[in-house]
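User: Can you fold this complex?
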Amino acid sequence: MTNLSPRTRVWLGFGLGAVVLFAAAPALLTDFRLSLLAKYLCFAIVAVGIGLAWGRGGLLTLGQGVFFGLGGYAMAMHLKLADAGEGNMPDFMELYGQLDELPAWWAPFANPVFALAATVLLPMLVAFGLGSLVFRRRVRGAYFAILSQALAAAMVILLIGQQGTTGGTNGLTDIEGFFGYDLDDPVNQRMVYFIIAGVLLALLALTRQLMHSRYGELLVAVRDSENRVRFLGYNPANVKLVAYVVAAGMAGLAGALFVPAVGIISPALIGIVPSIEFVIGVAVGGRAALLGPVLGAVAVAWAKTALSERFPGTWTYLQGAMFVLVVAFLPGGLASLWGMVRRRRERQPDATVPADGDRVLVQEVAA
Amino acid sequence: MLRFHRRRLAAFSVALAAALAVSACGSKTGEGDDTGGVTADTSGDTVKVGLLNSLSGTMAISEVTVRDAIMLAVEEINAAGGVLGKKLAPVGEDGGSDWPTFAEKAEKLIKVDRVAAVFGCWTSASRKAVKPVFEENKALLFYPVQYEGLEQSPYIFYTGATTNQQIVPGLDYLKAQGKKSVYLVGSDYVFPRTANKIIKAYAEANGLKVLGEDYAPLGSTEFGTIVNKVKASKAEAVFNTLNGDSNVAFFKEYKSAGLTAAAMPVVSVSIAEEEVKSIGTQYLSGQLTAWNYYQTTTGAANDKFVKAYKAKFGADKPTSDPMEAAYVSVYLWKAMVEKAGSFDVEKVKGAADGVTFEAPEGLVTIDGATQHIHKTARIGKIGDDGLITEVWNSGSPVKPDPYLKGYPWASGLS
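Assistant: Here's the predicted assembly.
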């Protein structure tokens, strides 16, 4: 494999990914496990965005839950309205809302095109607004992280307070159909899985293009030395803004796909803790590599399921131990494992110039 | 590079098209399918039952006691020979105080373990999250906690109180005591908001004045402002739907503001024996609670339950209403299965109406139409020893009425 050109290797990688996701997984897994994998892949989509913004751009995005939630709620609102049928209100609104008619801000979501566009554009718009304020004022590091967390907390409080129109702590549940397809049907659940897997691969391709473009170089430069980039005549604020907005769009799309896959969106999925969990997945996988965040997000989510099924009483300790071990012994994340093993086998301790850029970055992070 | 990009794009379109082609045979909404429904595995000499409670996260402190009570019932039933000659094999899962996790674990219990019934859930949000899972798979859930009513799923049995068995009797009691005004304090989530909606409708019809309504975020410990407002309102009583830790802060603040149980009693619907212990009796002594069961409830069935529980889990562990309801739910399921002569979900449901059990709280009967149970309402007073003693009860079990159809004042609620 080492003799192949980088381009062929990328091709092979994507081919392998497609075979695993589209052929192997559906053939080997039961419907229930496949629907869990669909959920993990949604987290992986969020992770790809975090990998770009944090791994490449150095923006510690601790509030991705907000964008995940915006996308998820936009999708769930449309599906709830579609379930209720034209002119009717969603079931929970009649229970808790005491409203005579649909609130004005719900109405446009009845239109599928508007709702689908909103799942991606709404998070991007919010990220653009927040990002342009914050990056222009050169807020960074811990301050940016705290601000992201505050936004996540505020959004949860807002959603819970407006029980009549948002479902409160319950969130939006009991979603029956997905653009006319009955979600109870295992065949349709499979369709949802294929869509999610397809979107993940497409976004990976897009992110790879971005990372290897001139913009990608600039983003890494901004991460490593913002002032030098500024002296070279670029505006680092704009460079960071693009990564932040793209990551938000991906999180929104992931939230939108999560809704048909799992059938629920609630404040419990978008607050401070889930936002941190997204970042933990990326850290475990390796934030700077292209595939690291995907592997990490899937591994962490899978481990959570597997450990809690095997050890319902003590799994939280095991999960914590796993995080500590990875951070202590594999600071570059799971993605750096391959490089480490190979280096040891080749007795080449200083292999810092491999063919593709991903590994260089992983080693930088590890150092 | 451009050519390469285009090829890749083509590959993705092919993959997506394939995915859509696969989906083409899926059923559309409203096409009325009878698919779904996983049969429980009852072929061996044991039958699996699912236990779905939060063992981690904020709800663990309450839900672990419910898990213990379910385990006690399962062990007692096994010691007495099982159900239809088969021993019960409990399969525990951790809901993690997280609603989507509850849905995932419910599906796992039904599809992978193929359990005959699931016992558990505490918060309304977790119940709402698992409800579609049970309905889709036509599997049974027994839900053991008092809740806000306005729900009736064909695959859930509700063994805790609905509003007309807890909140309405609580209000009736205040009215009988001659109270003319109340102040509503609650945590900010579904149960308190819905409960307060019902309380306001009741108040309007019964000449009770609601002088204020305040919500604190779940887990909040900042009650200075709310208690000052309560004090300034000069209400004659407080109706408290706060949950968990917030009660500690609220009652401390309440006492330090000079408000007393004698002058302005607080009726709580989420404080049971376990919570009294953690809040501290010095703050709660003399305050009122509304439930269907207390550790002090008299009767041979309760003596046996309390003794068995303490023997297994420790003499300092109190029993409470949700624990009792969970314990009862296992026995009710057993009685239903035995009446049906089968573990089949539809047959068990069909046999439900009229099934009775001599529970620690007294005789309970399943109402087949609503799948709730007839329960005796009890108002209790918290004593200096941390136990709650009954000061009033409804005399006989109250028929469940989750949508409050029998109450004219509630006609606008659902």
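The first strand of chain A starts at residue 177 and ends at 178. Confidence is low (pLDDT under 50) at residues 349-367 of chain A.
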